Amino acid sequence: MATYNYIARDSEGTRKEGIKEAACPTDVLGWLREQGLTPISVKGISARADKKARQPRHRKRIKSADMAALCWQLSTMAEGGIPLTTALETISEDIENLRLQEVLQRVLESMQKGETFSESISEFPRAFNKLACAMILAGETGGSLPISLRRLAEHFDTRDKLGKKVKGAMAYPVFVLVFITLIVIFIMAFIIPRFRTIFDTFGGELPGFTRAFMGFYDIVRYNLIYIIGFISLIIISTVLAYTKTRKGHYLINKIFLALPFFGKISTQSFITMFCRTMATLLTAGVSVLEVFDILATMTNNHITQAAIVRSKDHIVAGESIFSGMAATGFFPNMVIKMIQVGEESGSLSKVLNRTADYYERKVDATITTLMSMLEPIMIVIVGGIVLMVVLALYLPIFSMNA
Known about the structure:
Layout: E1 2-9, E2 15-22, H1 25-34, E3 38-44, H2 45-54, H3 64-79, H4 84-93, H5 98-112, H6 117-121, H7 130-142, H8 145-202, H9 208-222, H10 224-244, H11 246-258, H12 262-283, H13 288-296, H14 302-316, H15 321-326, H16 333-345, H17 348-401
């Protein structure tokens, strides 16, 4: 038997907290329901103490995973009949992200002054984006806030999983590049200088390949500061052009989208997010034009953002959704055809969700292909570098023995 600390609410929303011995947390949950209580949390006392000691509260960026957990908790408690203010107060007491905790406390203060939940969260766009505000407003207006919160939780959960997949695909090439760079630095700093000392004792003429290799080594060695400065200048210029100028941002985005695999992964993940978000908003009762306004704020890529804005302009001019998207020349034909089918059959949300599922599978397949190709490429590159170094350094020894 283990000891568990439970937090629950009764039918009137009163907070109940206590300790219960049980074989597992499921038994505690069952016991609470038998008592007519709505469970909020059940944690082992020792595990909870260890977790608090190992994972102190922190102030960090609010991620999709944090928002997904928040929305799941709010939807569960709202479905149990707990007032929203009470739910926010309870959640904010035990939340680990201090930044989100501060936001929730300020939202609670606004609601206690008479503002609605949607009005209160709209003051914090970094935590609650336009999608969240629109979904919650639609839920409040239609009297289906728990359902809207659940859909919002599913959206943030899916977005978090997709983001982790894409980041994992992007992180692997960076690791490969750093690994190769460290190998080259080790060879140039420790191996080549030792062989140069040996070559100086030979006194004879070195083979052509070795002379060329040592010449390249000398160029890098004596101009290392200038090379590092030049590379740093390119990186800084690229970052400034990307962040400070619209043309630079557009050009870099265009180059990135044109890259093999990486551009494909980025485009497919955007299509997945676009279809999933559009389906979620339409299901919640948000108007089509407002949907496109919200979608335009959910990407930092000027190319994709411009495609969404142009699609909206065509819809405002009286065209259908699929024809407006087709006129931009950005969206894949399959997406346009699926949206056409959804519009004509009156099941656009369902079709969009299926399209998002399809493109999410394509993202998985592209990432798998990329990983399977990068591994042998890394082996070939590392092997090629080592082979070139070995040939350049051992050719004089072979020539001397000959």
